Amino acid sequence: MVTRDTYFVDISSGDVVPHAEEAKSVSFQIQATPEEVTKLKALFEENYDDDMSTFNRAQIPFRQYHNDPENAQYDHSMQKIYARIHQLGTLETRKSIEEMGVLNPIKKSNTRSDIENLK
Predict the structure, then answer these.
(1) In a domain? residue 86
(2) Is the pLDDT confidence value at 106 over 80?
(3) Short-list 103, 89, 72, 100, CA closest to 28
(4) What is the pLDDT of residue 92?
(5) pLDDT interval class at 22 (50, 70, 90)
(6) DSSP β-bridge partners for residue 64
(7) Given this model, what pLDDT does residue 105 score?
(8) Could you write out the three-class secondary structure of 17-76?
(9) Of the residues 34, 78, 92, 117, which has the maximum number of CB atoms within 10 A of its CB?
(10) Which long-range contacts (CB under 8 A, 24 or more apart) does 49-57 make?
(11) What is the domain count for the chain?
(12) pLDDT score, position 25
C-alpha cells in the first residue's frame, strides 16, 4: 500500500509543503505521495509559464479577454491544478473546491437574458 503524507497547498504562491507554517498562506490540505507532489508542482510551473504569456498579451491594446488563447490556456492550467488538488484533497478540501465551482465552470452568454430566451 502506498503511504500518503499530509501536505499544504498555497494556490497564490504554488507552494506545496509538509507543514502549514512553511506556506505563506494555506489554501488547501491534501494527502499525497512525494511523486504526486512533484506532479502537482509541475502543474504550478506550467501555470506560471501560462501566467507570463498572459502578461505579454496584456501589452496588446484592444485585444479582448474572451478572444484570447493565452488567457484560455491560463484558465485551463488553473482548472488542472484545482482538479488535481480535488483528487488528492481531504474531504474538506474537496468540498471547498466543489463549492467554488471551478471544476465545471458555467459558460455565461454575453447575450441579454431577454434576448437569450427568444432563441
Answers:
(1) yes
(2) no
(3) 89
(4) 96
(5) confident
(6) none
(7) 66
(8) ECCHHHCCCCCEEEEECHHHHHHHHHHHHHHHHHHHHHHHHHCCCCCCHHHCHHHHHHHH
(9) 78
(10) 50/74, 50/76, 50/77
(11) 1
(12) 81
> Does residue 63 lie in a domain region?
no
Q: Which three cell numbers stand for residue 6?
A: 499530509
Rounded CA separation 25/64 (Å): 32
Residue 23 domain-assigned?
yes
pLDDT, greater one: 3 or 38 = 38
Largest separation between any pair of C-alpha atoms in the chain: 57
* CA atoms of 51 and 57, how far apart (whole Å): 10
Containing structural domain, residue 80: 5-54+70-100
The neighbouring-strand residues paired with 32 are 5
Cα(117)–Cα(44) distance, integer angstroms: 40
Surface-to-core class of residue 42, CB atoms within 10 Å of its CB (0-12 exposed, 13-18 middle, 19+ buried): exposed
Residue 46 in grid coordinates: 506550467
Environment class of 114 (CB within 10 Å of its CB; exposed 0-12, middle 13-18, buried 19+): exposed
| Residue 119 per-residue DSSP state | -
